[in-house]
From TrEMBL:
InterPro entries in the record: Haemerythrin, Haemerythrin_Fe_BS, Hemerythrin, Hemerythrin-like, Hemerythrin-like_sf, Hemerythrin_metal-bd
Domain Hemerythrin-like: 19-117
Listed name of the protein: Hemerythrin-like
Gene3D superfamilies xref list: Hemerythrin-like (1.20.120.50)
CDD domains from the UniProt entry: Hemerythrin
SUPFAM superfamilies: Hemerythrin-like
Keywords from the UniProt entry: Iron, Metal-binding
Similarity annotation: Belongs to the hemerythrin family.
Presence of keyword Metal-binding: yes
UniProt organism field: Priapulus caudatus
Amino acid sequence: MVNYAVPEPYRWDTSFMVFYERLDDEHKGLFQSLFSIGTNRDSKAALKKCQDLMVGHFNYEQTIMSRANYAGFKEHKEHHDGFIAHLGKLSAPVTDEEIFFCKNWLVQHIKNIDFAYRGKL
Ligand SMILES: [Fe+2]
Ligand SMILES: [Fe+2]
């Protein structure tokens, strides 16, 4: 796996495009919600919103992968499940290390794992 740069300031850009409009829009929202945890690290609401958006996005992504009989579905879902379990253990205030872990996870996941379904869904 390639290790991609984490944008600073943390925001989605066109290098993250998967070329499915709803998925790209959801990815933008995930970047925003992680950015917002970084700037409101005491906020339980910001953390909860991020957890809910991740779950919602992963569910939608899995639905369309499964509908397309995408070959990488099972392994892809395992990556999602692992990250949700990790996020579920966090509590506010979230540490710098944790915020960076999550920001980096999303960057690497989109470019190494989500990119593999481009053109196949
Ligand atoms: Fe994914
Ligand atoms: Fe995704």
